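Our preliminary data section would be incomplete without showing what the modeling component actually yields. Below, a chain of 197 amino acids is followed by its predicted structure, encoded as tokens that our downstream tools consume directly.
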Amino acid sequence: MSKGRPRTTGGTLYRRPNSAVWWARYRNREGLVIRESTGTVDPEEAERFLRKRLDDRDDGKLPVVLASKNLTFGPCRASRVHCEWAEWFLHTRSIPPFRSKGTHQQNMNAVKFLRPVFGDTRLLDITPEAIEYYIAQRLNSPRKVRTKLGVRLLGNLKPATVHQEFRVLRRMLNVAVKQKRLPINPCKRRRIPRVDQ
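Predicted structure:
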């Protein structure tokens, strides 16, 4: 009997006829063959993609990665079915009686500002660095107040406001982890903005 590498450990890269894009072929933990486009024509990038998939498989994260690879935070250009996490969260984990009316309103207010930044981003691609950048941008954003004469700018947003938006984002991504749509919450590696008294 051969003592070579088990067939479940490796993977290969190949090109389809009339296509410059590299495809990855590998086996999951159950031995089933997975074929997936790497989305690149660069062989080194394709190799990195394959290595990442094999690492995810070996770490037990592959089912989560594959289930969520097309799941975006906000609007999905291709289809709104099962691909917009913010909308799903608001309609299944935020509305009364699941949460209070006040909490639902806070969640909707936060999503209004989160969606323009993270909207087309896949959940898997939301990084701690992107969250930190969002926090910094919001802390330096002017506070807009609507009056009869129009919108007035009244200094920067209060840290408590940004803190609330961060907590909503963290809660939304925690639910994604529990639903096995995300392997880890990127908010865990970011500090909550300090709220000055």
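The domain at 85-189 is CATH 1.10.150.130 (DNA polymerase; domain 1). The first strand starts at residue 11 and ends at 15. Preliminary results of this kind motivate Aim 1 of the renewal.
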